[in-house]
Specification:
With 372 residues, the protein is of the alpha/beta class. The protein contains eleven helices and 15 strands. Strands 7, 8, 9, 10, 11, 12, 13, 14 and 15 form a nine-stranded parallel sheet that branches. A four-stranded antiparallel sheet has the order 2-3-1-4. The chain binds phosphoenolpyruvate and manganese (II) ion.
Length: 372
């Protein structure tokens, strides 16, 4: 059960104290207080955990300072939709809004290699009016002898260059909680030139201790990748770990699932789950065509599989696209074969815009149908 308090309530007020005290003394129930970013103001939500079936929602609704009470039957208590359309979805971070009705492209390097390549990438993004990117500093690799990323050493120039080229959000994977601290420190030392969205990679989808640690901090939003070999339900429960620890600023990323049925793609593309995720949860939904497809192969129409699947995800309503580019894929230290070329950036963005316009027309047509 979720108890939403009046947005105007003051934590020092007797109303607040009385309500919290009452809830905390319900037998067999524990409480967790969450601050949630609303569209106008921040909201306080109190989660009642335990057997809440016998509680009277009306009694709780009547407590001072309570705006409304939501009974939760389904899983994913915090991130789930629960047929309550009035709960805000989405969040603002460093001047960028992320929601189930927006779209942002995060084109960039799978792995940071040289400052020159980072600068070429960011300069091109600025020239194309982009304000987000992806840059990998900590790389989880299958082979222990493969390049593991430059780690904290590259953060100062990545952040400074991002700031110089007007990038507001850098998606960056973390594989250990110490990386969050390193990112925080480096942003402070460089004067907060940009923002970071912490990425949980598919190899860590069920690394619950990492999820708890990343969930405990509220400074950075999280890009959470679907596990490549588990059910969607298991991935959603894992994402809920972030929220249960206090961070519900989570974007859910589809990146394909492992099965030979997907061959010759690296993974079986799962972008048909974009609308499913929007139905089940309030999270914005990201697609990662690069790690799904894994190559630059083209269809006879001259359009790469990467661009085709991106369009499929965007036509289905995706809210974010995470995609690998590289100034010289042959020299890339990670995932060169799937990186798009800088000369293709404008074309890629035009194709995304076409698909987005198509989605918006489809949504408008559906709205007319609803209105009768
Ligand atoms: C990545 O985005 O760099 C990455 C490693 O992706 P995934 O975790 O989906 O394999
Ligand atoms: Mn990669």
């Amino acid at each position: 059960m979720i108890v939403i308090l009046d947005s105007a309530i003051n934590e020092q007020s007797p109303d607040y104290q009385q309500t919290l005290d009452y809830l905390a003394h319900l037998p067999g129930i524990s409480t967790r207080v969450h601050k949630v970013q609303g569209t106008q103001q921040d909201l306080t939500e109190i989660y009642l955990i335990g057997d809440t079936k016998s509680l009277s929602a009306d009694d709780i609704q009547a407590l001072p300072g309570v705006e409304r009470v939501i009974r939760i039957a389904e899983e994913y208590r915090i991130l789930g939709r629960h047929r309550d359309e009035r709960r805000a979805s989405g969040f603002d971070y460093n001047g960028v809004h992320f929601g189930q009705d927006t779209l942002h492209v995060f084109a960039g390097l799978c792995a940071v290699d040289t400052p020159e390549h980072v600068e070429i990438m960011l300069k091109a993004l600025q020239a194309h009016g982009q304000h987000c990117t992806r840059m990998g500093a900590y790389k989880p690799r299958t082979n222990p002898y493969s390049f593991q990323g430059h780690g904290r050493g590259c953060l100062p120039y990545v952040f400074e260059l991002a700031g110089r080229y007007g990038i507001r959000v850098v998606a960056m994977e973390v594989t250990h909680e110490s990386h969050v601290e390193e990112i925080h420190e480096c942003l402070q030392q460089t004067g907060q030139p940009t923002g970071v969205m912490l990425q949980i990679g598919t190899r860590n989808t069920q690394n619950f201790e990492l999820l708890k640690a990343v969930g405990r901090q509220q400074e950075f939003p999280v890009l959470f990748k679907r596990g490549f070999g588990i059910t969607l339900n298991e991935s959603l429960n894992a994402a809920e770990y972030l929220a249960s620890e206090g961070n519900s600023q989570v974007v859910f990323c589809l990146r394909g699932v492992k099965t030979n049925m997907g061959d010759p793609h690296r993974n079986l593309v799962d972008f048909s789950h974009v609308p499913v995720l929007k139905r089940l949860t309030r999270m914005p939904v990201c697609i990662d065509p690069s790690h799904s497809v894994g190559s630059r192969e083209q269809a006879p129409d001259g359009i790469s599989d990467l661009m085709h699947v991106t369009a499929q995800g965007v036509v289905a309503g995706a809210n974010m696209v995470l995609v690998d580019f590289h100034p010289n894929p042959a020299k890339a230290l990670v995932d060169g074969p799937q990186a798009m070329l800088m000369s293709e950036l404008g074309w890629f963005l035009d194709d995304v815009a076409l698909a987005r316009a198509c989605y918006q027309q489809r949504a408008a047509r559906a709205e007319r149908q609803r209105q009768g």
